[in-house]
Amino acid sequence: MSSSIHINGDGKRDRGRSARGQLKVFLGYAAGVGKTLRMLEEAQDLKRQGEDIVVGYFEPHKRKDTIAKLDGLEIVPRRAVAYRGGTFQEMDTTGILSRRPAICVVDELAHTNVPGSERAKRWEDVEVLLASGIDVMTNMNIQHLESLNDQVFRITGIRVRETVPDWFVKGADDVVMVDVTTEALLNRLKRGNIYAAEAAQRAMENFFKESTLTALRELALRQTAHELGSRGLPVQQKSSNHSRRILVPRLHHIESPLIGS
Q: For residue 143, which of 150, 160, 223, 242 sits 20 to 30 Å off, Cα-Cα?
């Protein structure tokens, strides 16, 4: 069973005005918790409601259940970038601006663009979309938050090189922490729902140790609860199926449940 933590801005945006776009961030504590799946489910809901929504970037990772959630969504083609004799695919920010949707879905916010790209980081591309008045839904893991870099290093022994500035995430209109128990996450890993068998085994020997995942989950929950408090929003904690849920009223998006764990 999964749960979510919401941090919401007030009111609904008038899409007829040329204001800054709204940012929604789906936050998790590790790969495989369901950030992209939940984000695409919401994208499908918005499309059914008649919203003009596109997928600006999606990384499939060979996850069939997640890939299936793309069905029927418009995808803006990637842009090829040449670098050191190779060709790499990056999000086409210019193409998205030309298409000018109301909402754009962007996977993997913390990604570093290939040298030679117009901007160094994907969050900088997202900032351009927001400044143009396009709403953005995106995702990242807690270990990519810049201020937590040292804490994450102490927990994992790995220095995360791809980070997102705190000010960018704190400026989001809506943050959803997609939370699942470490037991359920490890079950997904063992079933091959996150990585192929060989990669899954390596992951369990390194980053996906139960103690590491537990510490990262606690860090993510503490960070989100702290952010709620800093915004002066009421916090209610409940326990259900070994996972915790923090709820804040005034939700302005509909969510669908994750696939079974």
A: 242
**Cβ partners under 8 Å of residue 57, min gap 6:** 78, 90, 91, 105, 106, 107, 108, 122
pTM for this model (two decimals): 0.82
**Structure confidence by residue, pLDDT tens digits, 31-77:** 999 999 999 999 999 999 999 999 999 988 778 888 999 999 999 99
- Please, what sign has the CA dihedral across residues 158, 161, 167, 173? negative
pLDDT at 202: 77
Residue in 52, 63, 6 with CA at minimum distance from that of residue 193 = 63
How many residues does the structure list for the chain? 261
Q: What is the DSSP string of 56-88?
A: EE---TT-HHHHHTTTT-EEPPPEEEEETTEEE
- Alpha-carbon gap, residue 173 to 169, rounded angstroms: 9
Q: Are 2 and 243 in contact (CB under 8 A)?
A: yes
Q: Edge-to-edge, what's the strand order for the sheet holding 174-180?
A: 2-8, 174-180, 23-28, 135-141, 103-106, 53-57, 74-75
Name every residue whose Cβ is closer than 8 Å to that of residue 259 and which is 6 or more positions away in sequence.
Answer: 34, 37, 65
Whether 249 and 35 have beta carbons less than 8 Å apart is answered as: no
Residue 20 DSSP one-character state = P
In angstroms, the Cα distances linking 28 to 172, 224, 226 are 15, 10, 16
65 Cβ neighbours under 8 A, 6+ residues apart: 37, 193, 259
* Exposure b/e, 131-149, CB count within 10 A at least 16 = b: eebbbbbbbbbbbbbeebe
Residue 32 tokens read as 């495989």
In three-state form (DSSP H/G/I as H, E/B as E, the rest C), the secondary structure along 128-150 is HHHHCCCEEEEEEEHHHEHHHHH
